[in-house]
Amino acid sequence: MGPRGQVTVRTGLAIRIHALLERFFPERRLFLRSDTDTRFIRLRSGTQAVAFLGVSLVVSWSIIATAILLMDSIGAGNFRDQARRDQETYQQRLNQLSEERDTRAQEALAAQDRFNSALDRISLMQSQLLQSETRRRELETGIEVIQSTLRKTMKEREAVKTRMATLETALEEGEAAAPGAEAAGDGAVSLLSAELARTARERDRIQQEAQVAMSQADQMAYDMKLMEEKNDQIFRQLEDAMTVSVEPLNKMFKAAGMDPEDMLDTVRRGYSGTGGPMTPISFSTRSEMPTLEEERANRLLNEMDDLNLYRIAAQKAPFSKPLKDPFRYTSGFGRRWGRMHKGTDFAAPMGTPIYSTADGIVIHAGWMSGYGRLVKIQHEFGIETRYAHMSKIRVKKGQRVSRGERIGDMGNSGRSTGTHLHYEVRVGGKAVNPMIYIKAANDVF
After folding, report:
1. Fold of 123-316
2. Which of 113-127, 367-381, 431-445 has the lowest mean pLDDT?
3. Which of 45, 279, 298, 355 is a Cys-bridge partner for 25, taking CB atoms 3.0 to 4.6 Å apart?
């Protein structure tokens, strides 16, 4: 197609578009009159179409923008409501956890009281057992003395019987003598009769003493039987008490990753090689083999020794919490924001007392870079605890502290985003999760 043909096509298309616009937007004239003149403005179809399109676009944009704003406002309101509901739920959960923690703390105190009561009862029962064993030994000794006396009495009685038989024989022989010897025999008969009467009285006395000795022996045998039954009952109660007391402690140390045998050996070495605060006893001084009761008593004393060593070790390992006032956990052990968090954080008001979780020696008490005011305590078994971000330190380096002793106040010093305690436990210089020790002691303390 040549240039003239293309011009013709474009002209026809323009005519059709103009006719379509004329149909919807006919040409209009706007007259503007004044006092002296009249003018008009002619609005072509294309101009009207452009104006209509522009107005339509503005109205559409206004509607869409208004709808978007309304939707954003509704969405923002829903988001705020949801955030508020989530915050309320979180706060309720925190309150529940706080109540559960307080309940666990009360249960732990009650368990500690029961444990102390059990120890007191065990000590009392141990004293009763030793007294009973001493009484039993005394009864055995008394029975031996009575048996010896009884044997001696029986021999004396046999001797008296023999003597009486001899006297009776002599008397009969005296009565059968010749009549000429009557005068001499009367004196002998009188003498024999008197001796026979005296011997009879001695026999009766010895028989009475023998009966009394037999009665005493029977009574002592009965007392010994009652004592043995009482001792057996005390033994059973002590054995049950040992099982109830030692097993939870053994499980606690195992749950904390500590070998109970190594731990007991370490504590036992602190008693100058004497084997601990209690040692087995021996009731025999005649180089005899121990009786079953003695072996049972020594076995119980060994278990009591272990129980006491467990108690001492529990004081030397960080099984308690560093706070006694209400608190909440804010950050646990592990990776946080790409970095290793080597302890557990406890949040509470500024100045909340902080306590040592075990017996030990303060090896640092002062400022340390990101830790702020820091206290480090060295404990037995290669364990070290750290208490960071304090507002005030109440101990000095080299000071020996006991479990539950106040060492500082909670604060916000160092690299900290709020008031809290950063608590660490290190074994052999390596940080471990403090909750291992705290959870291990929940069922004991």
Report:
1. Helix Hairpins (1.10.287)
2. 113-127
3. 45
CATH fit for domain 322-334+341-440, picks 3.50.70.10, 3.30.750.200, 2.70.70.10, 2.40.100.10: 2.70.70.10
Which of the residue ranges 49-53, 157-161, 180-184, 273-277 would you say has the lowest mean pLDDT? 273-277
DSSP annotation of 241 reads H
Tokens found for residue 274:
């004497």
Q: 3-state DSSP call for residue 278?
A: coil
CB atoms near residue 46 (< 10 Å)? 14
DSSP 124-178: HHHHHHHHHHHHHHHHHHHHHHHHHHHHHHHHHHHHHHHHHHHHHHHHHHHHTS-
Contact status, residue 364 vs residue 320, Cβ threshold 8 Å = no
For 180, the token pair is: 């000429």
Tokens of 232: 């057996």
Q: Please give the structure tokens belonging to residue 61.
A: 């944009």
Kindly give, in sequence order, each residue whose CB lies less than 8 Å from that of residue 199, ignoring residues fewer than 6 positions away.
Answer: 160, 163, 164, 167
* Residue 246 near residue 303, CB atoms below 8 Å: yes
DSSP letters spanning 55-121: HHHHHHHHHHHHHHHHHHHHHHHHHHHHHHHHHHHHHHHHHHHHHHHHHHHHHHHHHHHHHHHHHHH
Residue the block writes with tokens 């029975």: 143
What is the per-residue pLDDT for 293?
66
